[in-house]
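Morning. Coffee machine broken again, so started the prediction first thing and wrote up yesterday's gels while waiting. Chain of 111 residues, entered below exactly as on the submission form.
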Amino acid sequence: MQHRFICLLVCLVTVACEPFDLEKKNFPVCAKPSASIGYTAGTLDVTFFLENPQGNIGAVGWDPGDNKGKNRVGTRVTYTYDKPGTYTVTLTLANSCDDQFSTTRQITVSN
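Came back before lunch.
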């Protein structure tokens, strides 16, 4: 009786499921993104860019830190501040493997 049960169990396991073939699946392979914030300032106009970018970078987002909600997207962006001051800029990177990286840098803008 026990022999029949084991035989039935083995038959169900091998017949009931379709085999999974990993070779048919395409999994993205990514290196985690990273970079630092580079910038050049000309009065209230500031150009932000990626400094020492590494890994796979798909999306690049910038928060200029002036609480106006005017974020920018791209590897090199220009932003105009309304007034001089010190701002904390945030850079966020992402890739197709859902790896994310964020960093901040304080900048001072003058007239």
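DSSP finds one helix and seven strands in the chain. Going to sketch it on the whiteboard this afternoon.
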